[in-house]
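Technical annex B. To support the medicinal chemistry partners, we prepared a structural model of the target in complex with zinc ion, based solely on the information shown next.
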Amino acid sequence: MQRNTFKLIIRILIMAAIAFIVTDLYARAGGAGGDSGGGGGSGDGGDILYLVYIIIRLLLELPFPINIIAVGIILGGLAIGSIYTKRTVKQKTIFNQLPTGDPVSSIKGYDRFIKNNPDFDEENFKDNVKSAFLDIQEAWQNQDLSKVRKFLSDGVYQRFNTQFKMMKLLQQTNTIENIEIKNIYIDKIESDGLYDIIHTAIHASINDRFVNRLDPSLNSGGKEEFVEYWSFLKKRGKERKDIYNTDNCPNCGSPLPAEMGEVSRCESCGTLTNSGEYDWVLSEITQADDYISAHPKLAKSEDLTEKIRRIINENDDFAVQLVEDKASNGYLQILTAQACNDPSIMRRFVSDKVFKELGINETGLITAYNRIFLNDVFLVGVSEEDGRNVLHIAIKSSYQRIQIDNNNKIRKLDEAVVSRTEVVFMSRDKDAAQSKGSLYAHSCPSCGAPVENSLNISCNYCGSIMNSTSTEWIITDIMSLGDYNEWRDSNKKDLSYSVDTSLIDKLYDVRDFAFNNVMLVIAADGVYASAEKQFAEDLAKKWGYSIEKLQPFFTMAQNSQLVIRMPEDHKKQKKIFKLMKKAAESDQNVSMEEQKLLDYIKGQYGLEENDAA
Ligand SMILES: [Zn+2]
Ligand SMILES: [Zn+2]
């Protein structure tokens, strides 16, 4: 008990340490999975919030009176710490003292894990993570995934692939230098159906340069130090057959194709190298702030997959993570289809109704994403409709849309990186046939043959209709989180599993949203006028934020590293908008850029002029 308590305190101290770091996040490889969502999350006054969250956890999870003592120690330590580290927030002192993490044997779930996987070798595993990390940085820089495809899940592949397509549209390159891995440790082990998932923390620093040939105003870069969480998945108890240190098929030994795209399939025996059947597969990359701030209630419980599997009467191979992977894969392809005005990219895996609703933008111009990444993907509900199981998957993404006209001139459709949560409905028949391929990875679920992007929805080989729910999870609806909550309220009786989606916003309260957005407005014209500075400082003081964080915060805003954040609640949106307007007016001069940003938000959230009066 005491040992566990001690471990918990150490863990929470690590979390506190990470929460207090202001990281500069650019567009490095892992960042494609959640890059400046981190940029928005980490420096935006969320620090105070994390602290509150951590303290509440401490109070709840530790027995009395140890909880009170622990909180006392942390607050005392922080008070002393802040006296000594007043100079600049960018000091990485806390970072440098990051503990090495618990030894793997003391991690929750390890005992069960090692019993099922007796040949697990921690050092060897970490070596593979290290080489995977380095190979992916190289792949990212070269915008070429062929060397790493064999160990990426289809969803992770698509995250990179989408980012590459967008970078090509915007003529962007990202060079990376001086990669230094400071530490790798296993943070958590979970089980998900027949699979085990290992969440690995990677603490590293790099220099990166993000260059945009269409418009230098989109350039960014510099040295950054960060922690990312890489999640690896493998089928439980299967003997490990190395896919990291060889280019041969783990099943039949033949050389793997030099170019594997959507599908990581061996041409000789047809096996998928990334099924989790052979070796650890990279299935998720999460930024530290998203990882830590993921609401504990929304985190996957140990038996979630088992529970869902029983509800929907699925076979043993089912895992929530795998459907989430399909959802994020499909979601990104839909965004790509809309960006490129090419509906053939998404036709095969969406229902006819969704296809009609999504439409294609009328300007006919390309809309690329300067940043596009998924912060979080998770199951929020399960229902049944017309003999089909329906899984509701919430996808939180961050992006900035840039329109490119025929003369290669750009126009920012989003004045800053914005984030939104949408809920994707994935439907499949209750008595669905075993799938032979994945539509999301361009193979026919009925016969396994490769499938091209096309508006024709019948398979060229077997003739079956592809967007049929009889063999594959098909996207049958996409709605905003607000619409989803309404839908859920009127369909309560049909839901067999549901989580409280209001928890998604819970870690932020109005002032955190507001403070983040106020800094964005103030920085919009690149000038930090003294009156604006005064306004920000007064606000910070009033709301209990640290004044020293303002400058780095402002710098992040200036570098387009903050994300506009808004709660779902319209009344709160109005309040926040009012404050943003006041901030812009504080120097008696609302610049054009500030006005543009305000108008954009007004339009985006349907706010009236008198909302800001
Ligand atoms: Zn093979
Ligand atoms: Zn077919």
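Notes passed to the chemistry partners:
The two ends are 56 Å apart (CA to CA).
DSSP finds 19 helices and eleven strands in the chain.
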